[in-house]
Amino acid sequence: MRAYTRTVQLLQERYYGALPGERRLTYLAIRGMLRTLDDPYTRFLEPAEYRALLEENEGEYAGIGIDVDTRPTRDGYFRVRAVQTPAAQKAGMQAGDLITAVDGKPVRGLTGAEVRDLTEGEEGTSVRLTVIHPTETRPAQIRITRHLVEMPVVKFRMERGGIGYVSLSQFNEIADTRLTQAVKELDRKGMRALVLDLRGNPGGLLDSAIDIASRFIPPSRKVVTIVESQGNPEVRSTSATRYLGGKWPLVVLVSRTSASATEILSAAIQENRVGTVVGTVTFGKGLVQSVLPLRDGAGCVITTARYLTPSGRDINRSPGQRGGVQPDFVVEVSEEQFRRGEDPQLRKAQELLMEKLARR
Asked: Which residues are catalytic?
């Protein structure tokens, strides 16, 4: 630490050019230190990034109810991908709007995280956006009151033959509640079997994966074993109070970008023999991270453990192994099928479930 402090002092005293501020130098130093660990999951978060991660895990935030591209346009503006709440729609926001300023501050030169940071704040306060609507050329001023916005993590519908379909995009603090509500709503509509779509789900909270596993796996069954750096194993099992009864045949869809908590859940369902996994081999992330705060509003994410599937498999990808969860039925999606809007993985899931229902 003395060497670092002395180096900063020498830079400030003797460097011939312009220097970043002391905080920026410190942030860069921390990033450099963590890069030497050769662990892509251990990383430093600046205050805006840390707040965004906490909000993502909580599943809601105080903001203005719009989804904005993380990258700017060629003009340096930020495009609105979707309007998420009635309040934002009523205020006049539209998908495709270009945000040029927030409270009079131009967004050109800012990052997506910085723009998001400007639009968020205390619930009940207001923010003024300068936007260019898709069909107009002159900018408009829109004032929106910040309100609680829930991140949509679950989509569901009923497919033919009484097969329910539930898509889960992330494992956050509200994922278990929203998924359970969706399953119960489909059950009221006469669901006979269920497809749980975890394709593209990057993971999230370990506890959320265990809670959701408890919905489909009988009580007291092993879900995952957590092994910390000292080598001490901790077995996490299903909870009796969450079990939904197992009355629906289940197929889980996964893809190459299904990772982390998604792999914990899909492996637990597969190895406890309560469902069938369809798709492609998953990403292969068998490491657990802890999110830790720092003094000035920043934070860091540190890998603190690895996990094993119920049978004791280490699925983390490494130079020596591909890793990942191997589906019971490997089904690829070609580029041509994707362009035509075809979904052979979902079709295979439906076929398997119809066969199971026919044998009942």
From this structure: 260, 285
